Amino acid sequence: MTRIRRGYIARRRRTKIRLFASSFRGAHSKLTRTITQQKIRALFSAHRDRDSKKRYFRRLWIVRINAIIRERIIERDIFYSYSRLIHDLYRRQLLLNRKILAQIAISNRNCLYMISSEIIKEVDYKESSGII
């Protein structure tokens, strides 16, 4: 009997998986079974951490906004916090998300101070006149 030459499809699939795992250490980049296991694990972690990255950045933006707002208000002897700022933004129907507010807080604090002082003035006016 003559020898049968195997096809190239399985080899092509394995080399593609090996290219994915070429930067892994030890058997994780050498052995086909461990490569496939590590590929599944890596893709699972990447999928999971995309969501956690979003949560992390939202927390970071909230901390930055809160720090700037409280720092400014301490100078004026008025208690104002992040939660009250966001609440008043929603009541005035201003569509500024937390990412934009955090960028404003870092790059141009005076602009954020102006926004918060305008909101405080409007809210104080409505509360004193009995509109709310």
Characterize the structure shown.
With 132 residues, this protein is mainly alpha-helical. The chain has one domain (8-129). Helices cover 74% and strands 0% of the residues. Helix 1 runs parallel beside helix 2 (32-76). It is rod-shaped. The termini are far apart.
How are the SSEs ordered, and which strands pair?
Elements: H1 9-20, H2 32-76, H3 82-91, H4 98-107, H5 109-129
Helix pairs in contact: 1-2, 2-4, 4-5
Count the beta strands. Answer: 0
Order of helices and strands: HHHHH
Mind telling me the C-alpha Rg? 28 Å
| Cα separation of the termini | 94 Å
The number of helices is 5
Domains, number = 1
Oligomer: single chain
Outline = rod-shaped
Mean pLDDT: 87
Q: Estimate percent helicity.
A: over 70%
- Largest beta-sheet characterization: none
| Uncertain regions spanning at least 5 consecutive residues | none
Strand-pairing-aware structural class: mainly alpha
Strand content is under 5%
Brief sketch in words of this structure:
With 132 residues, the protein is mainly α. It has helices at residues 9-20, 32-76, 82-91, 98-107, 109-129.
